[in-house]
């Protein structure tokens, strides 16, 4: 059996969100329930899992900045020896940036799917001034020395044309940020909705290439993602579905806001590890996580499909990937 270790844990710290993005998969969870885990719980998780190599933690939601103790969550994980990044829509980011930096946050991923305010508002369901607020949060994080990466989910008719791609690259350049284009995943959408919104990320890769982007490498530490450079901006390409090379290089597990351990976004209901967390049973927690890693084996993503790779970056050979 092929055993992939655990380096990263994606923590959905709340189901609440102040946006209503048209494509949102909610990390595979229902929205509206109370947050089950405390900041102390997350510190315990990080302390226990450091014993089996977990070092990187990404806070997601919902919108993690909806938690009034999100800085304490960061601080507890950092105190336990973990590095912490956070995914946010950016609306509340300027208000939180100083406290997050003081707590030890290393990086923020800010979702900006279009540099056009009207398109941004249409996609997110947020007020017209929301893009300006998000950009203000990005600027504040850069001022504080936090790493910033802009996430853009690839959406047909929104950000796949030449001018839209150029504007997102320019936005990232002005902010001193990295940029990643993420292919839409068929989670949380009806087949009709997915078909209407989905555009292969290869479309954006072709645009980037036509603009003069040059391939740099594959991020072997994170799903074998192709990395490009254009105008000084590092651009990552994320194809997380029907991509066996992405899945086989995955060292991430997911934890829902109510204490369920998921092998993958495409997986089942997951393993309830809340009793181990609340009981401060480190050995039980470790056993449950290791059992999940072994159970995942070669699987962990969508069905096997075509590998996306930048020109000159295709790894030798393909590794099969089955659905978890």
Please explain how this structure is put together.
This protein is of the alpha/beta class. The chain has one domain: Alpha-Beta Barrel (TIM Barrel). Helices cover 34% and strands 19% of the residues. It has eleven helices and twelve strands. A twelve-stranded mixed β-sheet has the order 7-8-9-6-5-4-3-2-1-10-11-12. A hairpin with a 2-residue loop joins β8 and β9. α1 packs across α11 and α3 runs parallel beside α5. The longest helix is centred in the C-terminal third of the chain and has 15 residues. It is globular, with a radius of gyration of 19 Å. The C terminus is likely disordered.
Condensed summary:
By secondary structure, this protein is α/β, with parallel strands linked by helices.
What does the secondary structure layout of this molecule look like, with pairings?
Layout: E1 8-12, H1 39-49, E2 56-60, H2 70-79, E3 83-88, H3 93-103, E4 107-111, H4 117-124, H5 130-143, E5 147-154, H6 162-175, E6 178-183, H7 191-197, H8 201-210, E7 214-219, E8 225-230, E9 233-238, H9 244-248, E10 252-255, E11 260-262, E12 271-272, H10 274-278, H11 282-296
Parallel strand pairs: 1-2, 1-10, 2-3, 3-4, 4-5, 5-6, 6-9
Antiparallel strand pairs: 7-8, 8-9, 10-11, 11-12
Helix pairs in contact: 1-2, 1-11, 2-3, 3-5
Oligomer: single chain
**Largest beta sheet: what is the strand line-up?**
7-8-9-6-5-4-3-2-1-10-11-12
Share of β-strand residues? 15-25%
Query: What count of helical segments does DSSP give?
Result: 11
CATH topology: TIM Barrel
Q: Which descriptor suits the 3D outline?
A: globular
CATH superfamily: Aldolase class I
Rg measurement, Å: 19 Å
How many individual β-strands? Answer: 12
Count the domains: 1
- The CATH architecture name reads Alpha-Beta Barrel
Q: Element order, helices and strands?
A: EHEHEHEHHEHEHHEEEHEEEHH
Unreliable stretches covering 5 or more consecutive residues: 298-324
Range of helix content: 25-40%
Give the distance, in angstroms, between the N- and C-terminal Cα atoms: 14 Å
| Overall CATH class | Alpha Beta
Structural class: alpha/beta
């Amino acid at each position: 059996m092929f055993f992939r270790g655990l380096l990263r844990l994606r923590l959905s710290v709340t189901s609440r969100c102040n946006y209503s993005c048209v494509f949102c998969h909610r990390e595979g969870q229902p929205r509206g329930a109370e947050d089950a885990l405390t900041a102390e719980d997350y510190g315990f998780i990080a302390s226990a899992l450091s014993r089996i190599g977990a070092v990187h933690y990404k806070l997601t939601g919902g919108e993690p900045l909806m938690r009034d103790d999100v800085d304490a969550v960061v601080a507890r994980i950092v105190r336990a020896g973990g590095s912490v990044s956070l995914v946010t829509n950016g609306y509340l980011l300027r208000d939180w940036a100083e406290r997050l930096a003081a707590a030890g946050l290393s990086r923020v991923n800010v979702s900006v799917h279009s540099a056009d305010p009207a398109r941004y508002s249409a996609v997110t369901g947020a007020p017209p001034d929301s893009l300006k607020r998000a950009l203000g949060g990005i600027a504040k994080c850069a001022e504080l020395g936090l790493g910033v990466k802009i996430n853009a989910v690839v959406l047909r008719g929104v950000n796949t044309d030449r001018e839209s791609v150029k504007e997102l690259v320019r936005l990232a350049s002005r902010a001193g940020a990295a940029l990643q284009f993420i292919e839409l995943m068929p989670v949380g959408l009806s087949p009709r909705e997915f078909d209407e919104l989905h555009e292969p990320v290869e479309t954006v890769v072709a645009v980037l290439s036509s603009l003069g982007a040059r391939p740099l490498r594959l991020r072997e530490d994170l799903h074998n993602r192709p990395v490009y450079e254009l105008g000084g901006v590092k651009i990552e390409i994320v194809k997380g579905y029907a991509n066996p090379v992405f899945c086989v290089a995955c060292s991430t597990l997911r934890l829902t806001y109510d204490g369920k351990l998921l092998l993958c976004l495409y997986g089942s209901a997951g393993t309830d590890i809340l009793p181990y967390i609340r009981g401060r049973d480190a050995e039980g927690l470790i056993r449950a996580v290791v059992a999940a890693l072994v159970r995942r084996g070669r699987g962990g993503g969508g069905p096997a499909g075509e590998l996306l790779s930048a020109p000159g970056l295709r790894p030798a050979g393909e590794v099969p990937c089955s659905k978890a």
